[in-house]
Design brief:
By secondary structure, the chain is mainly α. About 50% of the residues lie in helices and about 10% in strands. Strand 2 and strand 3 form a beta hairpin.
Length: about 190
């Protein structure tokens, strides 16, 4: 939350104070999250809920907060309104054929290719390491414990390009934030 508030303050060239978060500021912060940062409705709602909790705790600790802080509302996208973004086979083929990717994007690109093969949540994908690998004759098997479900998972990888990455260029760790921003850029990449 601190990082996001700092980004908002930088963007708006103003400081946020506990007693200055009125209706106008809350709406401005919400627009910043949704429009400028392009966060999902659910993530924006979580951040607003966290902001309200911080303001309530500050008030309980005797600090002065704006009275509007009690009226800040979080929100959540309805499951029926949710849009799943998936890649079709031709888009996957185009991604695999990308050339001249900037060096700074290489690790995210390799993680994306691995993710396309194993189909797991980003939280599980980015925690994989060479220790999870088991080699077979024509494929590689990944074994790990899913973070959310706590289930043991075994996934086979048969794609030659991904096997090459796993055996020779295992990607360095990247944060989920960096990964998400970079794969959005890669999906728009045109040579």
């Amino acid at each position: 939350m601190f990082r996001i508030v700092k980004a908002y303050e930088f963007e708006k060239s103003e400081k946020l104070y506990l007693n200055s978060i009125d209706k106008y500021t809350a709406e401005s912060f919400t627009r910043f999250l949704k429009i400028e940062q392009q966060y999902s409705d659910n993530y924006c709602g979580q951040l607003l809920k966290l902001l309200k909790i911080i303001l309530r705790d500050a008030e309980k600790s005797g600090l002065e907060v704006h009275p509007y802080s009690n009226y800040i509302e979080s929100f959540k996208q309805k499951s029926s309104d949710r849009i799943l973004h998936i890649l079709n086979p031709s888009e996957i083929k185009a991604l695999k054929g990308l050339k001249h990717i900037p060096e700074a994007y290489t690790d995210s690109y390799n993680w994306l290719l691995i993710g396309l093969c194993i189909g797991q949540r980003v939280s599980d994908l980015l925690k994989l390491s060479p220790d999870n690998l088991r080699k077979a004759t024509f494929w590689i098997v990944y074994r790990y414990l899913q973070q959310k479900t706590k289930k043991a998972v075994t996934v086979g990888v048969a794609d030659p390009l991904v096997i090459e990455i796993l055996e020779n260029e295992f990607p360095r760790r990247v944060s989920q934030v960096v990964f998400n921003k970079q794969i959005k850029a890669l999906c728009k990449w045109r040579e």
